[in-house]
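Q: Give me a backbone?
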Amino acid sequence: MRPGDGPGGGRGGAEYERAVGAIAAGLRGAGPAEAPGRLCAVAVDLLPVDGASASLRGDSMPLQIAASGGRAARLAQLQATLGDGPCHHVLRTGAPVLARDLEDGSCADRWPVFTQQALGSGVRAVYALPLGSTAVCVGTLDLYRASPGSLTAHQLHVALLVAGVMTVALTDLPYDARDAGDGWLSGLAADHDRVHQAVGMIMAQLGVGADEALARLRGDAFAHGLTVLEAALDVVARRRRFDTP
């Protein structure tokens, strides 16, 4: 997806130009590590939403890279821990999910635990957008709103514009930013490796396959109020085993 693609057209309109200017101002002087967080903040400023988070696709779970605040970060981590929620649907299909009211029964049917937890956190609507395209979805931009409601065509266009700019910022990272030992992407890779290591240890402890081991890790994390990464670190540090009561 290129910046400006998507419904709503109107590239020459005053509101579109304002959005472009706000995005440019938000990114001014930002390095690669800062761009996703800056764009999450810009999304909250431009749109009728209360929080935003961005996650990259991972082999076993999405990896949160930025959030506009604590609640948005927790909801992103919750989706990763549960293996369920709007962002997972986007990662599977590459299509946006626009859940205008989580109290609607269809949302509870699709994501029962996530919906319950999100409502408990004061979130009534979630809009999850792909980073990339239907063919190649590299992650998601998730927008959270405390009141129910839909995005207008213009607002959706702005949200897709922010997602498109974030996609470009991520995919155009220079190789030294991707591979630097102290870079944020290296930190994400290390987190991902810890989850894989924990899954391998659970497989050995229980004699189960990778999917079952990951499901056990996720269930244990949720039961103890942890993120899946926190639970994985406990397993890797041998503070938690799955073959003992």
Q: What stands out?
A: The chain has eleven helices and five strands.
